[in-house]
Write a structure and sequence with these properties.
The chain has helices at about 10-15, 15-20, 40, 45-55, 85-90, 130-150, 160-185, 205-220, 245-260, 265, 270-275, 290-305, 350-355, 375-380, 405-410, 490-505, 515-530, 540-555, 560-570, 635-640; strands spanning about 5, 35, 75-80, 325, 340, 370-375, 415, 455, 480, 485, 580-585, 610-620. The chain is mostly helical and about 650 residues long. Mean pLDDT is about 90; it is low at about 1-35.
Length: about 650
């Protein structure tokens, strides 16, 4: 009888549950690997689930893949001027080879790093070694191995068999999709590959998406909404929120279909390069059939949510920070009731020490890295009345640019005059009130902000060297920063995009959901206290989509979505999406003595009232990108394996 090397986790209750509450370290009752027979490995739910568990950990935690990690590669973020080793800087220069370990000396990327070790995947103490390129293929093979051995699951109820099969199908479809969104159509591997020479051809994006959709649809039909309500989930009741369920499967089914229906995938350059023809599309380049099916998947999900049949709901805006950060809660995983898919092994101590230190400035916190929002991206945050800044009726006043803005602007962005050091330490006076005006103390390109703004979406004002609640000064703060891969607000926005393009208007909807595309956008705006989409944007699909794109930019800002959105919309190489700007202005009040006291010339109690002069923008970075940058290049050693696995166009 064959032997199989497999991780059997003796205490199933601790494996995924530990990710929800504290760090994942002491979780094994015995040595992590045992040699056992195939029949023994797969015979019952507990053993088979031990096999399935490993696939959960083949997904990188992009938030903290290393101590510090770059994951916003659209026109949304600057890194420090000397941080040329970060992928953000490489993308600015058009160097998309930089995702590969062969071209990355820093070793912090979540797509690929040196030192990959698949055996370490189930060792949660080494969870940061997981990278997408290797991890996804590893998980796909495991999913196929599990599906090939389902008949060995002899000591199981129908419900247990369905939950095992549902997870396997989900992971096969999910990991293919995770790769496709960066590289385009790939071979869809649905069998355990042997030792013979590889010949699996790359499929078109549409063909690959159809195969993934089959797996994700089947998974959604097999999996429960909530594991806590099932007999198999009783083993881990109360600790099942990270386990793959029906809502996750529906979410990724819809996302996979919407991506397949997006302009890039409809006009896939790989098709032209290999003799194919574009698919039928509407005026904006979307394939209506894929969008209709995406809207139906999202509609099924949202109907379950809106009727109270799930454990998911939008968090109140007053608790918005809890989606991304927990503070002094013992390392509790962020996400609350809104996070749908999160990385299950978030090393909270790594985010406590590294990533949470990187959003202030080097003069505010003790960090070697700075991430700052670009001024052009901050401009997407419109007014509380729901209008974009450049609309003539918005009421935006360039002499008082901080007044009347979208409440998410005040949550996410720190601007000139904001109090950044609540403790009021005397030594902090030169930088306390955010001197972010032109030539201000926090406008140093090496130690401050290159744009005139700071990103506080994921951190608190107390994360500074004087209040000392950031990780480098206070481990006891237990700061845990984690950005979910998918959250409920994203689903509402994807539904809106799919529904309007399926039906050609803002009133478009799926047959299984009462919400129109416009309604779905307004659900998210209402949560934030922003007025609904103005009527001037609902009369045509083109105008409504401009607001859909802007709403995604604001609601999902800095959450690693923008790079893929710009590529699938075929906008990453188009003006103004190919530039990064700074905001230039001076304070209307006196700036004398500013090096000693940054409160000069501002309203310390209400910085939204501050007056500025000389309001203008300056282009800092212009990206020289082209259509070849719609996809990332595959590894040379991989495309050299056999002719059918060809390189992406232009690389």
């Amino acid at each position: 009888m064959k032997k199989i090397k497999i991780n059997i986790l003796a205490i199933l209750a601790a494996l995924l549950a530990c990710g929800s509450f504290t760090s994942c370290t002491d979780y094994l009752d015995k040595a992590p690997e045992s040699d056992i027979s195939e029949d023994e490995a797969f015979k019952n739910f507990k053993n088979f689930q031990g096999f399935v568990e490993e696939m959960y950990f083949c997904l990188p935690n992009f938030t903290t893949c290393y101590w510090n990690n770059s994951f916003n590669w659209g026109e949304d973020e600057f890194t420090g001027i000397n941080e040329t080793y970060m992928m953000c800087d490489k993308v600015d220069k058009g160097d998309f080879w930089g995702w590969q370990a062969e071209h990355d000396g820093w070793g912090c990327g979540f797509l690929d790093i040196n030192g990959f070790d698949p055996v370490a995947y189930c060792d949660l103490t080494k969870g940061t070694q997981v990278t997408l390129w290797q991890g996804a293929w590893y998980a796909i093979r495991k999913a196929n191995l599990g599906l090939a051995n389902l008949e060995r699951l002899t000591e199981a109820s129908r419900e247990e068999r369905d939950m095992i099969k549902g997870q396997l199908l989900f992971f096969r479809g999910f990991y293919h999709f995770m790769l496709m969104q960066y590289f385009g159509g790939l071979p869809y591997i649905d069998e355990v590959l042997g030792s013979s020479a590889l010949s699996n051809p790359r499929l078109t994006y549409a063909e690959c998406a159809e195969r993934a959709a089959e797996d994700l649809r089947a998974a959604a039909d097999l999996l429960p909404i909530n594991w806590d309500s099932t007999q198999p989930g009783a083993y881990t009741k109360g600790k099942n929120d990270l386990r793959i369920n029906k809502i996750m499967a529906l979410g990724y089914l819809g996302k996979n279909l919407l991506w397949a229906g997006s302009p890039l995938m409809t006009n896939d350059p790989n098709l032209a390069a290999h003799g194919g023809t574009p698919r039928p599309s509407n005026a904006l380049g979307y394939n209506e059939d894929f969008c209709k099916r995406a809207a139906e998947a999202f509609g099924e999900l949202l109907t379950l949510v809106e009727s109270g049949q799930t454990q998911y709901k939008l968090v109140a805006f007053k608790n918005y920070k809890s989606l991304f950060l927990t503070h002094q809660q013992g390392g509790l995983m962020p996400g609350s009731t809104e996070a749908i898919y999160r990385n299950p092994c978030s090393d909270w101590n790594r985010s406590n020490w590294g990533q949470t230190s990187d959003y202030c400035s080097k003069k505010i916190n003790k960090s070697n890295i700075c991430y700052h929002p670009t001024a052009n991206y901050v401009n997407y945050y419109g007014m509380a009345n729901g209008l974009p800044l450049d609309d003539p009726d918005s009421g935006f006043d360039p002499t008082h640019p901080w007044k009347g803005r979208d409440p998410r602007f005040y949550h996410d962005i720190r601007f000139d005059g904001c109090d950044l050091v609540p403790c009021g330490d005397e030594d902090a006076k030169p930088v306390r009130y955010a001197p972010l005006y032109t030539d201000g103390a926090l406008r140093s390109p090496t130690e401050g902000s290159r744009s005139g703004y700071l990103n506080y979406k994921f951190i608190l004002e107390t994360f500074n060297q004087w209040d000392k609640m950031g990780g480098q000064d206070n481990y006891g703060a237990n700061n845990h920063m984690l950005i979910p891969y998918m959250r409920l607000a994203d689903v509402y926005l994807m539904y809106a995009e799919a529904a309007c393009n399926a039906k050609g208007s803002a009133s478009g909807k799926s047959d299984n959901c009462s919400l129109t595309a416009e309604d779905a956008i307004n659900v998210i705006r209402d949560r934030a206290g922003v007025s609904p989409v103005n009527r001037k944007f609902t009369g045509s699909l083109d105008k409504f989509m401009s607001e859909v794109r802007r709403e995604r930019a604001v609601e999902l800002a800095f959450e690693s979505h923008r790079f893929t959105d710009l590529r699938r919309w075929m906008l990453i190489d188009k003006y103004p999406y190919n530039i990064k700007t700074s905001q230039e202005f001076t304070r209307a009040g006196s700036t004398s003595g500013i090096d000693k006291d940054s409160s000069v010339g501002i309203n310390k109690n209400d910085p939204t009232q501050n007056e500025v002069l000389g309001w203008s923008e300056k282009v800092v970075v212009e990206r020289n990108l082209s259509s070849k940058h719609y996809w990332l290049p595959l590894k040379v050693k991989d495309v050299s394996m056999y002719p059918e696995f060809y390189q992406n166009p232009g690389w």
